Each structure stands twice: as C-alpha cells, then as structure tokens.
Amino acid sequence: MEESHDPPFQDQYKNLFDKLLDTGSKYAYDYDLFIVEECELPLIDLDKLNSGEFEREKCKRDIARASQEWGFFQVVNHGISRGILEKMRSEQIKAFKKPFHDKMNEKGFDFLAGSYCWGTPSATCLQQLSWSEAFHVPLNVISGLDGRNSLSSTMEKFARTMSDLAHKLAEILAEKMGHKSTFFRQTCLPSTCYLRMNRYPPCSLSPQIFGLMPHTDSDFITVLHQDQIEGLQLVKDGKWIAVKPNPEALIINIGDLFQAWSNGVYKSVEHRVVTNMLKERYSIAFFLCPSYDTTIKSCVDPSIYRGFSFREYRDQVQEDVKKFGYKVGLTRFLA
C-alpha cells in the first residue's frame, strides 16, 4: 500500500475533533464570513518603470496608492520569467508529493533540514487549525546549495529574482514617503529573508477549516506566486473578499513592519487562505525581513508606534500565539 503524502491532520488533532463531537455543538463560526465577493486586486504594470518620466512616476504613485488603500496589489511584467515560475511550481509539487514520513524525516531533503512544518501545533480549537504544510527556507541556505539538484537550483534562481523585486518595491514605497532609503538593502539580508513553499491539501470540512488562519505578515513586503485555485481572501472595508487568481501576475502585500515604518500610511491587511473540498492548492511566498537586531521606527513624527527591534516583535508574536492561539500584532507596540 502506497504511503500517503498528506499530513495526518485528523489523527494529530483528534482531540479537537472529539471535543467538537462531545459537546454536540456546531462550529463556532459566523457563516457569513464565508459568503464573500470575488475581486481583482489593483493591477500594476511594472514595465512602466522603464518608460518616460510621466509613466514611471504614475506607476510609482499607483504602487503607493494600492499599498495605502488595499495593502495588496498585483504586478505584471515583473521581470520573473514564466519559465522560472513554472519550473518552481513543478519542483514544489514533486517535493510535496513525497511520502509524509519522508518529509518529516527529511529523507532526500537534507538541504532543507528543519524547514518542513504542517498544521498548527499551538491550536486549541479547530478555528486555530491551519490545514496546510510548508517548507520554510532562509535565503542564505538556498544560496549555499550550489545547485546540488533540480529543486535547489530552481529555488536559487527563483529566490534571487523575488528578492530583487521585493527590494525594488520597498525602495519605491520609501521614495514616495520622501525617503531615498538604503535601509532595506542594509537590513534585509539573505540570512533574514526566506521562501515559504505552501501546499493546501483537499479538506472535507471546507470551508470551515482554514488553510491558513487569518493573520497579517510580520515582514516588510511579501511577494506571492500562487496557482489558479482560489483560496486567498483579504479584508477590505471591513469585509472579507476573495482574490481572483491572475495567471500573469504576482501578488504583493504590505507587512506589519512597513506599516510601522511608514507610520500607518501603508497598510498591513489581515488575510487568510480557505480550503477546497476537492482540490489541492499551491503557492510560494518570499518574505522581505530584516535582521533581528534591526530597530523598526517610524520615518515621520509624531509616531503611532514606539520603536522596537524585529526580535522583540517576533518574540511578542510567538508569546501571544502560545497564550491566545493567535497573533495580536502591532497594537502591542502603540506609542
């Protein structure tokens, strides 16, 4: 009998399912949360950055406006070839299709040692369970692999181009705040940025169990490549909306650190992934993060948030997740 490649969610979290059955209660969900409208994110053609001054400046203004009003946008002509994107997806699928125990024991994944994770170890109820698995890999690990196999060489090319794009966007957003800053180049290093390859298996309890529970990202900028299976949703004007996949585009979203750095001008927006009852879903994200000792401080005064180090922020997030089951985030750091 062939061993399953799916994590054993129902066995591992049996106590959470049993607790639900024992009480005889229904899921403690507001089902209106899952009746959402589909939308297309603001679409920005980055080729305009190579045009004349008027078109270039308009493109930069559009990036800043989307970051203020949505916290999310999508980009085309982003400089990452379709060939790299398709190869990365193919290699990612092969990695996740290995037997579950091979992934857990890093069999054939010595170069990804310690990067595999699944579910939500801290979950105390089904609402906190994320029905997904991931490889979470720092950039310096990827760049040190020297192309030892097809997956590592593809990841290296993919990571390099995603990093370049994230830095370019960060610098544009800083410029539109009146800062020609080298801050991001100096602090967001290969040892602190990372890729996260995600797989969301089919879930018979969809959509009541999340693929990824509602959260904001604890970074400056996230660059996401996703497949054409719907699942990503975000909050806009107090309502959850579903993001319509665009095969030509990458999705960009603002993280908590950029919201703090910009004094609340750019918005880190809550988002989630919902499961699909029949189909699996894949995505891969690049996270632009600084070193742990980096101080995050508003670029303008008076500041909404007090200064804090990235280490302090991460430690507080982990403490809150352990204590409450969810991330509290930037409200912990108001001035």
TrEMBL record:
Pfam families: 2OG-FeII_Oxy, DIOX_N. Keywords: Dioxygenase, Iron, Metal-binding, Oxidoreductase. Its EC number is 1.14.11.13. Residues 191-290 form the Fe2OG dioxygenase domain. It is an enzyme of class 1 (oxidoreductase). InterPro entries: DIOX_N (IPR026992), IPNS-like_FE2OG_OXY (IPR044861), IPNS-like_sf (IPR027443), Iron_ascorbate_oxido_reductase (IPR050231), Oxoglu/Fe-dep_dioxygenase_dom (IPR005123). GO terms for biological process: coumarin biosynthetic process; gibberellin metabolic process; response to molecule of fungal origin. The keyword Iron applies. Signal peptide: none annotated. It catalyses: gibberellin A1 + 2-oxoglutarate + O2 = gibberellin A8 + succinate + CO2. Belongs to the iron/ascorbate-dependent oxidoreductase family. GA2OX subfamily. This is gibberellin 2beta-dioxygenase. It comes from Cinchona calisaya.
